[in-house]
Amino acid sequence: MGLVSVKEILADAKARSYAVGAFNLNNMEILQAIIRAAEAERSPVILQASQGGIKYAGLEYITAMAKAAAEMATVPVALNLDHGTSFEQVVRCIRHGFSAVMIDGSHYPFEENVAITKRVVEVAHPVGVSVEGELGRIGGTEDDIHVDEKDALLADPDEVVSFVEQTQVDCLAVAIGTAHGVYRGTPKLDFERLSKINSLIDLPLVLHGASGVSDEDIQKAIARGICKINIDTELRQAFSEAVRKKLAEDPEEIDPRKILGPARDAMQEVVVRKMRLFGSSQKA
Question: Does the active-site annotation cover 82?
Fold first, then answer.
């Protein structure tokens, strides 16, 4: 089938009131787990590469693996840059074949965020690549990006309309109380803020830091306009737990296939559960 844009995938999600999972890709086993789950569930899916993932696997490897998976898949598959922090990095990903990019200008003042996001849109849209922007600062740590709790800021509904009109982004990540990484307590999402933002713009909204958010809160968020949900930490947890279990059961095992195979299966189960929770199963 080949890679499709996130804009194309989210248009249907918004029209039919469900969300699509965006799962971070770091190696072949993670990719296989995500694609196998998508095929089994007949679900569209978004593959994501973070700065850390690109640094670990290499941009060429990430892109080649994702393209191969998408070409063999019978469901819609997108490849998105997660938390791009510079114009140059975004351009590199577009040139290598990413079908979508996120430019995270949330650490800049509003006008600078608008300027860099608009610049990315101007180079991405002409070649069919969709763009995700961000308002507010999501706390926690994701690979090379760390935001202290004291620096995390919720998205300002008063800025949303202006940001979208000036940048022409295809989807918007909004900070409503989630955080990257493992939660130390129960996350408290600002659903009133999310509802206000959703009422102001006709655009798919994105929820970052969703690993560990309760199923009930996920469903509330989807009902209030969230169409793309990012999942990374729960895949890492499933991977590492399965590897530890396998090596504890058989400390002498040296075959990577027998060690990583169970990890791949465990991650696939996580992705399947998320697709069913998000409502994307049987939507492809």
Answer: yes
Domain span at residue 92 reads 6-278
Kindly report, residue by residue over 173-192, the tens digit of the pLDDT: 998 988 755 545 567 899 99
This prediction's pTM = 0.92
Tokens 């975004």 found at:
90
- Among the listed residues 12, 82, 170, 215, the single catalytic one is 82
Beta-ladder partners of 171? 132
The 10s digit of each residue's pLDDT in 107-152 is 899 999 999 999 999 999 999 999 999 998 765 444 554 444 443 4
- 283 within some domain: no
> Per-residue b/e over 249-267, b at no fewer than 16 CB within 10 Å?
eeeeeeeeeebbebbbebb
Could you give phi then psi for residue 2, rounded to 5 degrees?
Answer: 85, 160
Count CA within 13 A, CB hemisphere, residue 170: 24
C-alpha 206/C-alpha 185 separation (Å) is 22
Tell me how many domains the chain contains. Answer: 1
Q: What is the CATH number of the domain that holds 273?
A: 3.20.20.70
- How many angstroms separate the CA atoms of 102 and 121, rounded? 10
Kindly tell me the sign of the dihedral angle through the C-alpha atoms of 102, 210, 239, 34: negative
- Buried/exposed code over 167-205 (b: 16+ C-beta within 10 A; e: otherwise): bebbbbbbbbbbbbbeeeeebebbeebbeebbeebebbb
Residue 124 lies inside a defined structural domain of this protein: yes
